[in-house]
């Protein structure tokens, strides 16, 4: 590898170097870096999982440092990674596929309101064409939301404000108020609904957020990102979805950050014991490195596996469960037990995001066949809740600092932040520094609600999850039944004459009433904590 001299202008852009400019000179603090060198590395990306449009990168640069002492050096996890001069074009947020919802959580009988990139969408099942459709959630008549409508007996989407009906192509097929012998106003272009290109892949509905006619058949030219493990029959893992009160940027960088797991999720996630334990939680240095970064995302590796960020939505990692020697295992290599973490992060609006997740694995697949999905979601939602408040406040603090970029607000000196910095580099270099909302928002974050409302599970998950919604309804019914049985048992004891029932029977009825009442109270608390609000106090765990 050739050693190149790094100019001061290149070093200034490293987030791991604190600089002060005086008389056109850049000063570097000696405690952090003693010597700096820029290495040019030839990288063979033959193990890359995905085929992408455009050329593949062949070269990348990594900025490393020599240790200033005998202790572990603080090395920048990734630098300005440039493959070649062909990746200068800015990322177009509206020329990519976005996941909307898993089809297992969509009811074909009703339209569903969803938001992606600030666009109000309605997802509905067109039984005439046997496919999911994604429309603009606006009736052209008086702009009422079509998601509050219904599917009529002919399989058309009906606006329930005035009864206008639309077919799967967005054409208006009926205006009840128009005279039958009058002009066919329903055929006018102004009466049509905007239709977005959509498709189903990995049992998830995807949308192309540009309704321009040139993209009508975009699925023939460009398909959503393909993740082979999600279609591998030897792997099993149910999906889930949830809305969050913080933005897409915060969501995706948090999922890229394994260093927070022993702390923010203490007691919820099993973590390997480090060789040297410096605290109760067992945090330790992590070897992480971004190997390739371009407009389409980046590839990364760490001690326990490989990771991929596919811009703009997908982050997934492969974990070798049996790995003991600490060497990275890439997807092309064989392993006995493998777990894949798949996260699909959807920008909804400023301060709002949606996550679709799946954790396919090739071991213990029987668990997914026996354990109901809602029971798995209870544990997964508890993990998501344990740092939800932290991330919400974090985003607001960054906004309050009014920093021109994320790197001015945060200090990230270790390798464990490599993927987070890699994502922020991609966002700044190719994504324009933030999600392109097309001027629909001022940029301000919504105000912070009370903690119980902020961490509410019912409206952010349960109502949009078929399994959890059905379980919630069933458990509420059981709660009412237990309360009813308790009241009936006491009533029987009270109204029955003394000589008509034995003391043993009375004692049995009273005991049954007490048990039913106690069970209903316990069940009510269980429902509240697992389907509505479950606080997580880090000071007492």
From TrEMBL:
<keyword id="KW-0408">Iron</keyword>
<dbReference type="GO" id="GO:0016020">
    <property type="term" value="C:membrane"/>
</dbReference>
<dbReference type="GO" id="GO:0009507">
    <property type="term" value="C:chloroplast"/>
</dbReference>
<keyword id="KW-0411">Iron-sulfur</keyword>
<dbReference type="InterPro" id="IPR050584">
    <property type="entry name" value="Cholesterol_7-desaturase"/>
</dbReference>
<dbReference type="GO" id="GO:0010277">
    <property type="term" value="F:chlorophyllide a oxygenase activity"/>
</dbReference>
<dbReference type="GO" id="GO:0051537">
    <property type="term" value="F:2 iron, 2 sulfur cluster binding"/>
</dbReference>
<keyword id="KW-0560">Oxidoreductase</keyword>
<keyword id="KW-0001">2Fe-2S</keyword>
<keyword id="KW-0934">Plastid</keyword>
<dbReference type="GO" id="GO:0046872">
    <property type="term" value="F:metal ion binding"/>
</dbReference>
<keyword id="KW-0809">Transit peptide</keyword>
<protein>
    <recommendedName>
        <fullName>Rieske domain-containing protein</fullName>
    </recommendedName>
</protein>
<keyword id="KW-1133">Transmembrane helix</keyword>
<dbReference type="Pfam" id="PF00355">
    <property type="entry name" value="Rieske"/>
</dbReference>
<keyword id="KW-0812">Transmembrane</keyword>
<keyword id="KW-0479">Metal-binding</keyword>
<dbReference type="Pfam" id="PF08417">
    <property type="entry name" value="PaO"/>
</dbReference>
<keyword id="KW-0472">Membrane</keyword>
<keyword id="KW-0150">Chloroplast</keyword>
<dbReference type="InterPro" id="IPR036922">
    <property type="entry name" value="Rieske_2Fe-2S_sf"/>
</dbReference>
<feature type="domain" description="Rieske">
    <location>
        <begin position="97"/>
        <end position="207"/>
    </location>
</feature>
<dbReference type="InterPro" id="IPR017941">
    <property type="entry name" value="Rieske_2Fe-2S"/>
</dbReference>
<dbReference type="InterPro" id="IPR013626">
    <property type="entry name" value="PaO"/>
</dbReference>
